[in-house]
Specification:
The complex is a heterodimer. By secondary structure, chain A is α+β, with helices and mostly antiparallel strands. Chain A is built from 18 helices and ten strands. Chain A has a single domain, classed as Cytochrome-c3 Hydrogenase, chain B. The longest helix of chain A is centred in the first third of the chain and has 29 residues. The radius of gyration of chain A is 22 Å and the shape is globular. Chain B has a five-stranded parallel β-sheet with strand order 2-1-3-4-5, sandwiched between helices. Chain B is of the alpha/beta class. In chain B, helix 1 links the parallel strand 1 and strand 2. Classes of the chains: A alpha+beta, B alpha/beta. Chains A and B meet through helix 1 and helix 5 of A and helix 1 of B.
Chain lengths: 405, 143
């Protein structure tokens, strides 16, 4: 007998509002449906109707509080490409350091949440205690623990000063020491291995078919990383290589355990990148155009469209921006967060699993629901979801219309 | 100051009503060893029926209005609402958006609210908010 179990939108296992509908046969999951719209705040609309482009940077930070550097970076990269702003070299290095600090904090946060979902709360507390060290550094160089407000069109707003460098290096050394312990806890512990090995498998074919991004796809053996494929900021200098689990375990299974391996190795990679960036950072300016009114005028006159791509901790983030001369706001702004794609991989991962595996498998893609809730079509106060058939009809209608003129 | 009685361990039910996660991770940071509110008996619970305090993060989106109301009704009296973050207070950066129904006092006018401003507030500020709620609940109990 089949029956349906709804989980969410408010549920203790999910930290964010999303509705999952499971069809079950006994303990076995036979179908999964995801309904997401509870977290939609209309950010793109605000960016296109209320905010000037500089204000939109701070709005883009609030797309997601955890990866609050990647969204403004994407927006800034797209606008810089349209307007043609040349970013100083030092600013590019500071952006890399900020991005990697964010990756460390985000992956550690995830590791804690994953431990909590397994019922291993002492590990959650240990990992979050370790994470406070990077939060201290973020506070030291940005003035705030979570939202950073550091990126700006044409550079960054705050420099990494001489006196910050030894503190950052001390933090890196602390993490190098903690890394061994974390790796031992997560990779060798019997309980974690039992709950994650062969659980929530995403095959390489499925990963490619669903176009998953970030650690989720890399754990399935797809060597995909924007920092490697299309380096931005100062990443060309670092020659980042996509990390797959076979680097450590020698094989790719694509299960939850492999996703833990990938994230742990990425923390190590981030530490190395920050270390090199601190040593190689050139002196100089950090902002191409410090006068905001002049900058806004430049953006107001610009015309064109561009796409910003950024490897966020959860995967590839894309912002599409279009500017039109004389238009005070962004003419068009489209955000595509990594979870929006990764969320589809829940279905192949959860099929044939047990109800008890839902929390850890759902958490294993590091979902960020607040990033995801973007698309909604509202016309005459009626919500409408476009299916593939509807889109096809619309497309045929447009072809006819074009043929007529 | 925390009243001498100190006998009440506050249990908090956390509701994400459209937040960007910034406040949520600071709430969890307040629970973990650096700030460690669990030593006072303050902890997150899995059901509103067990809670004394409901912590709302984020502006209330249209989709969440009925859920927020239902959670408020499910929580036993005496109860306090803790609004964490600027967007729950005024809409914050999201004000004027077409999909916001908040702030909270527009949805539940009878609620006793305590506000923690900040985007996101620091864990210390969240702890202070919980303690304000605590003092209020102590006063209610004395009466």
């Amino acid at each position: 007998m089949k029956y349906e179990v709804p989980i969410g939108p408010i549920h203790p296992a999910l930290k964010e509002p999303i509705l999952l509908k499971f069809t079950l046969e006994g303990e076995r999951i036979v179908d999964v449906d995801v309904i997401a719209s509870q977290n939609h705040r209309g950010i793109e609309w605000i960016g296109m109707n209320r905010n000037n482009p500089v204000q939109s940077i701070y709005l883009a930070e609030r797309v997601c509080g955890i990866c609050n550097f990647c969204h403004p970076s994407c927006l800034v990269m797209a606008v810089e490409e349209i307007v043609g702003i040349e970013v100083p070299e030092r600013a590019q290095y500071i952006r890399v350091i900020q991005g990697e600090l964010e990756r460390i904090h985000s992956h550690l946060l995830w590791a804690g949440v994953a431990a909590h979902e397994l019922g291993f709360d002492s590990l959650l507390h240990y990992v979050w205690a370790v994470r406070e060290k990077v939060m201290d550094i973020l506070e030291l160089i940005n003035g705030n623990r979570v939202t950073k407000a550091i990126i700006m069109y044409g550079g960054v707003r705050r420099d990494i000063k001489e006196e910050h460098v030894p503190k950052i290096k001390q933090m890196l050394n602390y993490y190098k020491e903690a890394f061994g312990k974390l790796a031992k806890l997560f990779l060798e512990d019997k309980t974690i291995k039992m709950r994650t090995r062969e659980i929530g498998i995403l095959k390489k074919e499925d990963a490619l078919k669903l176009a998953t991004v970030g650690p989720t796809t890399r754990a399935s053996g797809v060597k995909k990383d924007v920092r490697q494929d299309m380096p931005y900021f100062a990443y060309p200098d670092f020659e980042v290589k996509a990390i797959t689990p076979d680097l450590l375990t020698g094989e790719v299974i694509g299960d939850t355990y492999d996703r833990i391996v990938v994230r742990l190795l990425e923390v190590k990679q981030s530490i190395e990148i920050i270390e090199r960036a601190l040593d190689e950072m050139p002196p100089g300016e950090i902002l191409a155009e410090p006068k905001i009114i002049k900058l806004l005028n430049q953006i107001k006159k610009a015309e064109g469209e561009a796409v910003g791509r950024y490897e966020a901790p959860r995967g590839e983030d894309i912002h599409y921006v279009k500017l039109k001369p004389g238009f005070e706001y962004l003419y068009a702004w489209k955000v595509r967060a990594p979870t929006y794609i990764n969320i589809l991989s829940w279905r192949p991962m959860l099929l044939d699993m047990q109800i008890a595996d839902i929390p850890i498998v759902a958490a294993s893609i590091d979902p960020c629901i607040s990033c995801t809730n973007r698309v909604i079509i509202v016309k005459d106060n009626k919500e409408k979801v476009l299916t593939a058939d509807d889109l096809h009809k619309l497309s045929v209608r447009k072809t006819r219309r074009l043929l007529r003129c | 100051m925390i009243p001498k009685a100190f006998k009440r361990a506050l249990w908090v039910f956390h509701v994400n009503s459209g937040s960007c996660n910034g406040c949520d991770i600071e709430i969890i940071a307040a629970l973990t060893p650096r700030y460690d509110v669990e030593r006072f008996g303050i902890r997150l619970v899995g059901s509103p029926r067990h809670a004394d305090v409901i912590a709302f993060t984020g502006p209330i989106t249209n989709d969440m209005v009925d859920k927020v109301k239902r959670i408020y009704e499910q929580t036993p009296d005496p109860k306090v609402v803790l609004v964490v973050g600027s967007c729950g207070i005024s809409g914050g950066v999201f004000h004027e958006s077409y999909h916001l129904a908040g702030p909270i006092e527009r949805i539940i006018p009878e609620a006793k609210c305590f506000y923690v401003p900040g985007c996101p507030p620091r864990p210390e500020a969240i702890i202070q908010g919980v303690i304000k709620a605590w003092e209020y609940l102590e006063e209610v109990e004395k009466k």
